[in-house]
């Protein structure tokens, strides 16, 4: 009795070997490092290594070694003090086209890397870094949606050859004016068929005749909710792209609630540059220049011609641009810094298909006319009142960075000039290439976690696992003798498999994740306790040792399965409804449940079978005098 077929032993051995192989990289410590990458359009020229070494030698900073891999340099140091001190010298010797990021580089041997065996990532609470809680300005998102519909409705009516006098903004609605009620009725029928009946995007209401022949257009509740949801998801995508541009390793960017986003940047200790890029809402607008009216007269009289809007150029001169926006930054898919034919800083813009068609049509109609490029940026400024209260104010800056005469029809690629410096062209390219934010985001909470706190958390978490693990091992050996020793072997394998799976998934380990591992250790022992107590009960009933082992495992299995399934359901709910740390706890718990079922039932049974299987035995070393 109690014999396993050969394939089961081979399966257990294979899983054990793979588990130890993929858990092993976590035993190798990480080096404090500075990661150096290039902008997309640039490549290392081979001189960087020498320049970096010279700069660090002059600064008396000791370098452990410098690795080069996949167009990326990793400068490794012996301690965090040297790591932080190296930032300024390296930035000074390298140009603006290099992106530097503080990180912890693994020291995994190459033979392990050949199996794609890599260590787990460490979360913010273990590694240190910066935490931002950002709020999306949903009011601006809805206003932008109304502005888009203002342009779109005008184009739709023109395409349908339905005459109208104008489309105006009025609070949270649009007003479309007509010459008479007959034109309004025809337009209403066409608009409802396009926007209301089929898609439920807009609501249309006729304005009483005494207030003029017009239609009032408002967004439906469905449209407003979709706009908010899109703004949140678009901003998450854009922020993730911007973080990637910054070169930060293993960032965490997650939704929190309906209007907020959590951004965690492990390893980053100076949040200034991250705040500058993440918080900026930069986009472009292309408008035609009014060449007939005098902008200085409009500025002095504070009256702008109908259909115009007054802007300021960078040199301080006023300029009149048409209110109609030809194109916005929403259609931009690529932006690369460079130089124009006169070696002045510029940005080369690439549009998507729809944007290219719009731009080609509009520029084709306006050849030999002036077009202005408006740079728009939103920033949040805090002001402290005498009573200590801090109020926030959104500052919107708009300036015309470029005015040029359209010489030919423009389409997918074109160049923006008029920038002050290469730094500005690089910054603008990053913001535009990462994508325009659907709505401004403002930092409402900021925390910086030092690396010492992170390392203390790592030590405390490791100690919690080790101490809990040792107490369980000692208890099992004392109480269950040989069977307890077998349970300890399975428990060790269980811990190894959890770490291995997390490493294979390249999961981020946090303190809640460690809590999940500790809980799983206790749950894995519960399964063995149920089995062993069942075996002892069978022995007290007078059955033979072999039969007691067989019955103990068979009869305890359903109880163990039920307990683990209910816990698994709870973990799935936590993962589905939780955020951040709760998800980390839930995924660790799910992995632990699966591995404990394997080790506590199949693993211990295999070892027990090797010790007692197919033998004539009179007594089992299971404690309690049995």
Overall description:
The protein is 48% helix and 25% strand. With 626 residues, the protein is of the alpha+beta class. It has 4 domains: 6-25 and 454-612, Multidrug efflux transporter AcrB transmembrane domain (Multidrug efflux transporter AcrB transmembrane fold); 31-107, ACT domain (Alpha-Beta Plaits), CATH 3.30.70; 139-222, Alpha-Beta Plaits, CATH 3.30.70; 281-418, Gyrase A, domain 2, CATH 3.30.1360. The strands form 6 sheets. A 5-stranded antiparallel beta sheet has the order 14-15-13-18-19. A hairpin with a 7-residue loop joins strand 9 and strand 10. Helix 15 packs antiparallel against helix 16 (545-577). The model has no long low-confidence stretch (mean pLDDT 82).
Short synopsis of the structure:
With 626 residues, the protein is of the alpha+beta class. The protein has helices at 6-23, 48-58, 80-85, 87-93, 110-113, 124-127, 138-159, 181-196, 221-246, 272-279, 295-301, 353-365, 422-433, 451-504, 511-540, 545-577, 581-612; strands spanning 30-38, 65-68, 72-76, 98-106, 121-122, 129-136, 166-170, 173-177, 202-206, 214-219, 252-256, 260-266, 281-289, 308-312, 318-328, 332-339, 345-351, 370-384, 390-405, 413-416, 441-449, 508-509. It starts with 5 loop residues before the first helix and ends in a 14-residue tail after the last helix.
Instruction: Quote the average pLDDT.
Output: 82
Oligomeric status of the shown chains? single chain
Low-confidence stretches: none
What proportion of the residues form beta strands (DSSP E)? Answer: 15-25%
CATH topology of the largest domain: Multidrug efflux transporter AcrB transmembrane fold
Largest sheet geometry? 5 strands, antiparallel
CATH superfamily of the largest domain: Multidrug efflux transporter AcrB transmembrane domain
Taking all Cα atoms into account, the compactness measure Rg is 33 Å
* Distance between the amino and carboxyl termini: 19 Å
Report the principal-axis shape: elongated
The number of distinct β-strands equals 22
Q: Work out the count of structural domains.
A: 4
């Amino acid at each position: 009795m109690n014999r396993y077929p050969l394939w089961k032993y081979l399966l257990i051995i294979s899983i054990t070997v793979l588990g130890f192989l993929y858990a092993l990289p976590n035993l190798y410590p990480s080096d404090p490092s500075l990661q150096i990458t290039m902008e997309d359009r640039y490549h290392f020229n081979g001189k960087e290594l020498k320049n970096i070494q010279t700069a660090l030698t002059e600064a008396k900073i000791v370098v452990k070694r410098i690795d080069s891999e996949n167009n990326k340099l990793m400068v490794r140091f012996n301690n965090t003090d040297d790591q932080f001190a190296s930032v300024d010298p390296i930035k000074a010797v390298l140009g603006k086209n290099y992106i530097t990021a503080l990180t912890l580089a693994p020291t995994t041997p190459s033979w392990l890397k050949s199996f794609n065996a890599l260590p787990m990532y460490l979360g913010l609470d273990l590694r240190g870094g910066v935490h931002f809680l950002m709020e999306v300005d949903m009011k601006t998102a809805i206003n932008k949606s109304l502005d888009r519909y203002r342009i779109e409705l005008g184009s739709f009516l023109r395409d349908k050859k339905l005459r109208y006098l104008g489309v105006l903004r009025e609070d949270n609605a649009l007003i479309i004016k007509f010459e008479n009620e007959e034109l309004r009725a025809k337009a209403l029928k066409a608009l409802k068929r396009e926007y209301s009946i089929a898609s439920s995007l807009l609501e249309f209401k006729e304005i009483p005749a005494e207030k003029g022949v017009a239609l009032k257009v408002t967004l439906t509740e469905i449209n407003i909710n979709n706009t908010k949801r899109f703004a949140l998801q678009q901003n998450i995508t854009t922020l993730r792209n911007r973080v990637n541009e910054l070169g930060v390793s293993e960032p965490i960017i997650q939704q929190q609630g309906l209007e907020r986003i959590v951004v965690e940047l492990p390893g980053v200790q100076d949040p200034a540059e991250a705040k500058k890029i993440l918080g900026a809402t930069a986009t472009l607008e292309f408008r035609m220049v009014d060449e007939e009216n005098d902008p200085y007269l409009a500025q002095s009289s504070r009256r702008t011609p109908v259909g115009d809007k007054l802007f300021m150029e960078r040199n301080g001169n006023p300029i009149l641009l048409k209110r109609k926006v030809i194109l916005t930054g929403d259609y931009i898919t690529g932006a690369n810094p460079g130089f124009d034919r006169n070696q002045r800083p510029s940005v080369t813009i690439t549009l998507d298909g729809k944007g290219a068609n719009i731009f080609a049509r509009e520029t084709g109609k306006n050849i030999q006319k002036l077009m202005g490029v408006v740079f728009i940026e939103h920033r949040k400024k805090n002001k402290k009142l005498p009573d200590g209260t801090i109020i926030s104010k959104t500052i919107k800056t708009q300036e015309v960075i470029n005015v040029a005469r359209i010489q030919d029809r423009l389409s997918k690629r074109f160049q923006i000039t008029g920038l002050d410096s290469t730094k500005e062209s690089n910054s603008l390219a990053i913001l535009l290439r990462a994508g325009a934010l659907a709505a401004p985001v403002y930092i409402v909470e900021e925390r910086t976690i030092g690396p010492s706190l992170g390392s203390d958390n790592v030590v405390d978490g490791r100690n919690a696992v080790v101490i809990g693990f040792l107490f369980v091992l000692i208890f099992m050996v004392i109480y269950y003798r040989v069977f307890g020793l077998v349970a300890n072997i399975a428990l060790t394998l269980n811990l190894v498999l959890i770490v291995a799976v997390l490493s294979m998934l390249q999961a981020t380990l946090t303190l809640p994740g460690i809590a999940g591992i500790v809980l799983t250790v206790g749950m894995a022992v519960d399964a063995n306790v149920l089995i062993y107590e069942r075996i002892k009960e069978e022995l007290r009933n007078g059955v033979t040792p072999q039969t007691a082992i067989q019955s103990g495992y068979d009869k305890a299995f359903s109880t163990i399965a039920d307990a683990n399934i209910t816990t698994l359901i709870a973990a799935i709910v936590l993962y589905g409804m939780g955020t951040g740390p709760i998800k980390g706890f839930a995924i660790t718990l799910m992995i632990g449940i699966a591995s404990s079922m394997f080790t506590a039932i199949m693993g211990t049974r295999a070892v027990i079978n090797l010790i007692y299987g197919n033998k004539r035995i009179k007594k089992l070393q299971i404690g309690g005098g049995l």
